[in-house]
Write a structure and sequence with these properties.
The chain is α+β, with helices and mostly antiparallel strands and 610 residues long. Helices cover 54% and strands 11% of the residues. The protein contains 27 helices and 17 strands. The chain is globular, with a radius of gyration of 28 Å. About 4% of the residues have low confidence. It binds zinc ion.
């Protein structure tokens, strides 16, 4: 058995490993005040962040499911590792040399955990394959890459390599480094045969697949010759470190930009990920030999912070063909909240991003992503496209086909919008279509629950903002003048803010108590006065709020308002595009760009430094 890691070294790992940094590989975190951060819990499914990380205490805790612990516990739980493996993973990340107590098995050699061994084997394999790509035997592999527009520099960026044609090149190399045949088979690098283990990947272009932290956990491999009887793409099988339902190729490179831009682009293959990144779409990822599924949704949602109030976007570059449509329809049934922020970018000639870049350059790839349409619209349009709308029979059949799709839209704002739009496309009576869809909808309950959840999130932010204004007027400072009554969507909150405005500029009062008195005097009713008193004494979520905290709260209110206005403009844009009103469209687009910029600025404040 493995010897125990020395206590001193475990403590060194606890001290040096930064919990917020480690958690950020899995979960995007926002400042939550008091030096804490919060995000969507990786241990249970949630839409509103209740997972808190406190770096000063080296602790994490989920207020919803109760999961909590220190940095080692986090790595153990999230990567399903043993204690030893978690310590080893962190030690490797932070460059801490571990020493082991003498094992009980009688062996003095330090024995590591399996995960650490397999990662080490994969990192060595990736370097080996990369080196082989330069060999004379790999001419056809280099040509494959060059013909697809990938120059030498990009091979290095993505760590692309070549697996030699023999049966044992990698196995021999790794065994010379002290790995056993059992380990190579367990890691999926070798296959067990009648005469021992032989290399799984032979005579192929190799893409290393990394986890979010950058460790190589598997490979994708493309065959190069017709003589190769295997499938065109071969991937690492399920292993202790490789779960294909969770793995996204390119995530290690895309993760930071995804969190920053709140956008993820999902493409279909390794070469498409490369083409997108090289063209400046640095948020591109791909699934590896499997369809995009609900576990991938969870991985992306945690990174995008796709909670109720953020406006994260996921863009799929599906083929326009039947398979792509089927994939879109499947995603459609998967997760409504996710789907509402899902877009589809379809290249009109059916080119994937790799071919598109090759034929038309980097700009064409960026334009493709820009041309995205909402998934709902894509699905509805492609459903209708199967019917001949010039005949009454065709229109009725199209209506029947599209009804379940419309009924499946649970968002109470979106659905009537789409019913109206689709009625226009079909040239049918809107009321008739609405009636038809109403019969097909069984989602009234789910709908009201979602709406309530949104309200709670918004109400909490509005309440905290008012507490800041009432309790810390000096910290609010100039920001007070940026606030308007219309930012507050809860009626009582708007009343309270309006009283604040009537009381005057908080900076002109000499103490918080004279300011509070002025606000109370300006309140129109006893009910509003009572609310003001309550908000004036209810403690803020953090102990000693500073200017930064107060600004973050107020920026959040402004950001949420910008988000609402952006949604309205987008709806307007859709209407004007149907009417073909170009001038109106341009105006809306200009406004939209300005608002998006404003929202990004506010987000900078409200998130704090990353
Ligand atoms: Zn939780």
């Amino acid at each position: 058995m493995a010897g125990r890691i020395r206590e001193d070294d475990i403590n060194a790992v606890r001290e040096r490993a930064r919990i917020d940094e480690v958690v950020r590989e899995t979960v995007t975190l926002k400042a939550a005040g008091g030096g804490s951060y919060k995000g969507l819990c990786p241990f249970h499914d949630e839409r509103t962040p209740s997972f808190h990380v406190t770096p000063s205490k080296n602790l994490y805790h989920c207020f919803s499911c109760g999961e909590g612990g220190d940095v080692i516990t986090f790595v153990r739980k999230v990567d399903a590792l043993s204690f030893t493996e978690a310590v080893e993973k962190l030690a490797a990340k932070y460059g801490i040399q571990l020493r082991y107590e003498e094992g009980t098995s009688g062996s003095n050699a330090p024995r590591q955990g399996q995960r650490t061994r397999l990662i080490e084997a994969h990192n060595l394999a990736a370097a080996f394959y990369q080196e082989q790509l330069a060999s004379s035997a790999a001419q056809h592999a280099r040509n494959f890459l060059l013909q697809r527009g990938f120059e030498l520099d990009s091979w290095r960026t993505f760590g692309v390599g070549y697996s030699p044609a023999g049966w044992d090149a990698l196995s021999n190399y790794l065994r010379s480094k002290g790995f056993t045949a059992e380990e190579l088979i367990a890691g999926g690098l070798a296959v067990s045969g009648q005469r021992g283990a032989y290399d799984r990947f032979r005579d192929r272009v190799m893409w290393p697949i990394r986890d979010a932290g950058g460790d190589v956990i598997g490979f994708g491999a493309r065959k190069l010759t017709e003589a190769d009887q295997g499938p065109k793409y071969l991937n690492t099988p399920e292993t202790p470190i490789y779960k294909k339902s969770h793995v996204l190729y390119g995530l290690d490179l895309a993760r930071r930009d995804m969190a920053k831009s709140h956008q993820a682009v999902v493409v279909e293959g390794y070469t498409d990920v490369m083409a997108c990144h090289l063209a400046g779409i640095t948020t591109a990822v791909a699934t590896c030999g499997t369809a995009f599924g609900s576990d991938h949704v969870k991985v992306l949602r945690r990174i995008l912070m796709d909670d109720e109030t953020s406006n994260a976007e996921v863009v799929f570059t599906f083929d326009g063909d039947a398979a792509g449509r089927k994939a879109a329809l499947k995603a459609f049934g998967e997760d409504q909240k996710f789907v509402a922020s899902t877009f589809v970018a379809v290249e009109s000639h059916g080119l994937d991003p790799c071919d598109l870049r090759l034929q038309q350059g980097d700009g064409a790839v960026r334009d493709l992503i820009k041309s995205r349409v909402p998934l709902f619209e894509f699905v509805i349009r492609s459903t209708i496209a199967d019917y001949d709308l010039t005949t009454a029979e065709g229109r009725v059949a199209a209506m029947r086909a599209v009804t379940p799709v419309l009924a499946g839209i649970k968002d109470p704002v979106l659905r009537p919008e789409y019913v109206r739009t689709v009625a226009g496309w079909l040239g049918m009576d809107e009321a008739a279509l609405r009636n038809q869809v109403g019969k097909g909808s069984k989602n009234a309950v789910a709908q009201s629950t979602t709406t309530r959840a949104v309200d709670t999130g918004v109400a909490a932010v509005e309440r905290t903002a008012l507490k800041c204004v009432l309790q810390a007027p000096a910290l609010v400072g100039e920001w007070f003048n940026s606030l308007e009554e219309s930012l507050f969507t809860i009626a009582m909150a708007a009343e309270v803010f309006s009283a604040c405005q009537r009381a005057g500029d908080p900076l002109t009062f000499d103490s918080p108590s004279t300011w509070l008195q002025a606000v109370l005097d300006a309140a129109p009713s006893d009910e509003v006065k009572a609310k003001i008193r309550e908000l004036a004494v209810d403690p803020l979520p953090i102990d000693n709020p500073d200017e930064r905290y107060v600004q973050a709260v107020l920026a959040r209110i402004l950001e949420m308002d910008a988000g609402r206005r952006i949604s309205e403009l987008k709806a307007e844009l859709q209407r004007s595009s149907i009417n073909g009103d170009d001038a109106a469209q341009n105006q809306i687009l200009t406004d939209l760009l300005a608002l998006e910029q404003y929202r990004r600025d506010m987000r900078e404040y409200s998130i704090g430094d990353q």
